[in-house]
Amino acid sequence: MIKREDWGFTNPVVSDLYGKPPLVWKDMDIHLVVYETDIENIEKVIPEPLEARTNKVFVWQSHFDLGTTQGAFSETAIYVQVKYKDYEADYEPFLYVDSHLPLTAGREIWGYQKKMAEIEIVPEMEAVRAQTNRLGHQIVKALVVPRYIADMNEIPWSRDGVFSLKYIPSAEENGEPLRQLVLTPGEFTAQEGKFFGGPASVTFERSEIDPTYLLEPKKIIGGYYGKGDLYLPFGKIVCDYKD
After folding, report:
1. Which residues pair with 140 in a beta bridge?
2. pTM exceeding the 0.90 threshold for the entire prediction
3. Nearest Cα residue to 144 out of 197, 80, 76
């Protein structure tokens, strides 16, 4: 038998799927649109005990080839800004990837709300188009027109990082599921001279299976596109729903 101390970091214990955090991704292509919606829309997509803190929404779409333990993949994340006790962070009610590795690791470690989708980021005329399709629906389409060298300080990320809801059903009927609210202080760094801002737009095709349309854009704040690096450590459990 394989002793516990000889198990890999993940299942399968004889050939673990991915390595332990921190994870590092380099030279990412980043496509980001920031906009405002109605605060009531944000309240429709966040779990208790989180509370909506602002009416801002971030549509993040990225691709990278160079990084640790999870291979190359593309990702789409929609962030809203929330609070819990004294914590102020962002939360991802919608999150998509195009590879099983980051889907599995993100859900198993942090509880990120990940699903599989088709994602592309394509330069097109004067703009860069980032699009996410799932089950025949164009659930996210965003355009950014790069016009000036941007600074990360323009983007109003929350102070304390990103919340995620780790929710794992019990293997026993009527058993207690695992429910934890996790806070992770990830760090994104834009590469100097390779990160640009400009006009932007976002549209969501209506899908009741992936209802991104609930976060209907009301006012575009700005768009960004360029190169950056991301560092993702272990998180911290800030709420156990058994308490």
Report:
1. 132
2. yes
3. 197
Give the span between the Cα atoms of 146 and 132, in whole angstroms. 20
Strands (E) across the chain are located at: 23-36, 51-64, 66-67, 73-84, 87-97, 114-116, 118-124, 127-134, 137-144, 148-149, 162-168, 178-184, 187-198, 200-203, 219-232, 236-240
The answer to whether 215 and 42 have CB atoms below 8 angstroms apart is: yes
* Strand duo 162-168 + 87-97: pairing: parallel
Q: How far apart are CA 107 and CA 169, in angstroms?
A: 12
pLDDT above 70 covers a percentage of the chain that reads 100
Query: What does the pLDDT look like over 26-49, one tens digit per residue?
Result: 999 999 999 999 999 999 999 999
Q: Which residues contact 6 (CB under 8 A, 6 or more apart)?
A: none
Q: Residue 192: its pLDDT value, please?
A: 93
Please report where in the chains the tokens 């050939």 appear, as a residue.
15
Give me 41's structure tokens: 């829309």
